[in-house]
Hints:
Blueprint: H1 5-12, E1 33-37, H2 41-54, E2 59-63, E3 68-70, H3 75-79, H4 85-88, E4 89-91, H5 93-99, E5 102-104, E6 108-112, E7 117-120, E8 125-127, E9 130-133, E10 137-139, H6 163-173, E11 180-184, H7 195-210, E12 215-219, H8 228-238, E13 243-246, E14 255-258, E15 263-266, E16 269-272, E17 275-278, E18 282-284, H9 286-290, E19 299-302, E20 307-308, E21 314-316, E22 321-322, H10 330-349, E23 357-367, E24 370-380, E25 385-392, H11 399-421
Helix pairs in contact: 2-10, 2-11, 7-8
The structure holds flavin-adenine dinucleotide.
Amino acid sequence: MTLNRRLFLSTAAAGAATLTAPALLAAGAGKPRVIVIGGGAGGATVARYIAKDSKGAVDVTLIEPSRAYYTCFFSNLYIGGFKEMDDLGHTYGTLAAKYGINVVHDWAVDVDRDARTVSLAGGASLPYDKLILSPGIDFVDGAVEGWSLASQNAMPHAYKGGTQAELLKAQVAAMPEGGTFAMVAPPNPFRCPPGPYERISMVAHMLKKTNPTAKIIVADPKPKFSKMTLFQEGWLTHYPGMVDWIGEDFGGGNVSVNSDAMTITIDGETTSVDVCNVIPAMKAGRIAEMAGVTTGDWAPINAADMSSKADPDIYVLGDAADQGDMPKSAFAANSQAKVCANAVRGALTGSRVFPAKFTNTCWSLIDTNDGVKVGATYEATEDKIAKVDGFISAPGESADLRKATYVESEGWYAGIVADMFS
Ligand SMILES: Cc1cc2nc3c(=O)[nH]c(=O)nc-3n(C[C@H](O)[C@H](O)[C@H](O)COP(=O)(O)OP(=O)(O)OC[C@H]3O[C@@H](n4cnc5c(N)ncnc54)[C@H](O)[C@@H]3O)c2cc1C
């Protein structure tokens, strides 16, 4: 499985901000070696838990190109003006200093499963006993006619952390009075099912204040979406007449864009737009494909321990995994990481392994203090991560309850980033 390094880097650069030479690794002599690829919700959590709980008995290396991880979660709140970009950035120093994790800022560009090594863009080759992949998502080439990564500055996706969200926010702020914001929403399955619709809410929140005659069009290939009743109720209440959602039944899936002309064509009708947020169909981060653990767009896993169905020494977490009934969320990736950490530590050190249990909640903000949520618990079956039971906010809830739900989401954010980085 040899990867063309130049090709890999040209596509991988869509998401990350920095690329550095690999640090020199001093692998712990005689200790079992775990390599984690990707320092996001799944990867940072699993590295931290294995290192913390094994108390130095396992040598953990975390490979992540960016020196700071900017969370996608809460990036819509940044676009809506509720958070600053600095609030979303987190660094890896504590993982290295407190838990002894070897943090290597580089791209993993190849996995040799026979030799059990990972190659880095900087040229190093690192051996592993267990390899954990949590590389997040990449976009399916050609998913939206007229859009490619080369168009991402004119028509941002803002679906990976960092500068893309800044770009999209700046474009919304610069819209002419009464201008048009368009979104091309992705098909299932994709990262953060309520994410596009929370984003519409946050863009509407911003426009209502600065540009109240502006319009928002959403072209959606799906007939329905996560928390649809709650979002549509909120759009009618807070942003009446501003949001035009065009679902599958009305040709929302028959869409093309032209980033030179700044137009979107939905079911044959072409409209000039001022901002076009294209969120293409997604697939597992490319390194999962290069490691040969994907089937189709995602990586099948054994739910009991998150090990790959293709290789018992490789584990896949978070968005890249075929997650069964779980949505692709940071909460889910963090939950899966703890199951995986427990299993990997057990396999390498003989420590006790507990049965897999998973939880998820996805909060969304519709307007100031109007928070809603959906969530569930899950168990591991032979086939998949299977839903046990769930809950969802109800339409027409009191303002106090909606505010409490928003406050709860802030507590969750503080908790998960502490669980990843502190
Ligand atoms: C707008 C938006 C809003 C969201 N809101 C929420 C929310 O409210 N709640 C929630 O739970 N989730 C939310 N999410 C989803 C959440 O961000 C993802 O589901 C979560 O980050 C997935 O974790 P992960 O570990 O799979 O991937 P990521 O967190 O994306 O981490 C992947 C990491 O891998 C690195 N990487 C990739 N390839 C390589 C390589 N070859 N070598 C080395 N490193 C590599 C990347 O640089 C990245 O840092 C939201 C997402 C978006 C886009």
